[in-house]
């Protein structure tokens, strides 16, 4: 099996609702997303000869997915008062609501599923929350 890897980063803020400690406050990370996709066979002719897929396509899709989350405050639905959310939105802030706690683990599954929906045979997705801490999602066999 061949495994291809592409990575991209985005800068966004989050907080962990219900967390006891500093991560309960709004703070930012440079999130680094490493996506790995698999393929059994290489193309035998044409532009893709010797390739599973074109890195250019994979890079473009990973970058688009990641850029969609850049420079935002990413919050779990229901963890911020509507009035606060509305004020932030009215003041032009980019708020992304997601239906899960914004941890590295949850993001790794989330980005895995986005790439899967685009048709990739995803092997695993790793999300670095800091340069030294990451979580990886892959399907059990
Ligand atoms: N298993 C997980 N644990 C934690 C997660 C997570 O996603 N998965 N996330 C957090 C917080 O988001 C927090 O921002 C991480 O902070 P911390 O580990 O403290 O990272 P720092 O780089 O800020 O650490 P310093 O030691 O203060 O430099 C918490 N846990
Ligand atoms: Zn954090």
TrEMBL record:
Sequence similarity: Belongs to the PTPS family. QueD subfamily.
A GO biological process held by the record: tRNA queuosine(34) biosynthetic process
Lineage: Bacteria, Fusobacteriati, Fusobacteriota, Fusobacteriia, Fusobacteriales
Record's protein name: 6-carboxy-5,6,7,8-tetrahydropterin synthase
Listed GO MF terms: 6-carboxytetrahydropterin synthase activity; metal ion binding
Biological or metabolic pathway of the protein: Purine metabolism; 7-cyano-7-deazaguanine biosynthesis
Binding annotation for Zn(2+): 14, 27, 29
Cofactor: Zn(2+)
Enzyme class: lyase
UniProt-listed PANTHER family: 6-CARBOXY-5,6,7,8-TETRAHYDROPTERIN SYNTHASE, PYRUVOYL TETRAHYDROBIOPTERIN SYNTHASE
InterPro entries: 6-PTP_synth/QueD, 6-PTP_synth/QueD_sf
Cofactor annotation remark: Binds 1 zinc ion per subunit.
Reactions catalysed: 7,8-dihydroneopterin 3'-triphosphate + H2O = 6-carboxy-5,6,7,8-tetrahydropterin + triphosphate + acetaldehyde + 2 H(+)
